[in-house]
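Progress report, Aim 2. The chain analyzed during this reporting quarter is listed below.
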Amino acid sequence: MATNENLPPNVIKQLAKELKNLDESPPEGINVGVNDDDFSTIFADIEGPAGTPYENGVFRMKLLLSYDFPHSPPKGYFLTKIFHPNIATNGEICVNTLKKDWNPSLGLRHVLIVVRCLLIEPFPESALNEQAGKMLLENYEEYARHARLYTGIHALKPKPKFKSGAISESTTVLNIDQSNASLLKVDQKNQATAAAVPLPSNTAALKGVNGQEHPTTTCVTPLAETGVSGSAVVSSTATQKKELGPAKVQPDKKKMDARKKSLKRL
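Predicted structure tokens for the chain:
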């Protein structure tokens, strides 16, 4: 088994930096597996691009780095069985980036992105799988059917992702709970205000002609619910006292008249 000792120290340092970058910011649809003990073999899971026969499948591949990397290109292999013109039955990948178009300045990120793009746009002219290449050129529907069949049987299943709708629903429920809590606080505050404000007395002692007291009671609505100010209630009470005034004066006037008549008789 190859280890980091098979690679020059400067290459190991560069690979460690690049692998860390791939782990923190992976390319779209690609998840890289890192083995700290062996940088000479890089594993990656590639999601089948949408709109292709490889959609809804995940394909595992590996890149083998030689001792003179990056002067020589890595060798790429699909570990997951796949029906593709540029991928041999043993999984070997045929793409120009890993052959004649290789450049030592190209990094692992570029190589992985090119491999995924190969699933979107195959090159049947340089086919390693002759059956797939011929089928792609002569009958695309038949080729796509075969590719989908392989994907359904051999490809890994994508990991479930969080649904935005569920988050939205949770957020909505949270907002409703917060609104209900706010309404409860307001209601409790109103009740506390109503209890704190002293209610005006609506029982007035009315003295009639016979001098007896006649209590008059009225249904009282809390100030916090009606919005009536305290001054309005006070003025209402004052008006009631004014109206009670003549009731007290009239009996006295009758007594005075009766006394005057008695004096005239004398």
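Confidence is low (pLDDT under 50) at residues 162-176, 199-238, 241-245. The CA atoms of residues 77 and 236 lie 95 Å apart. These observations will guide the mutagenesis work planned for the next reporting period.
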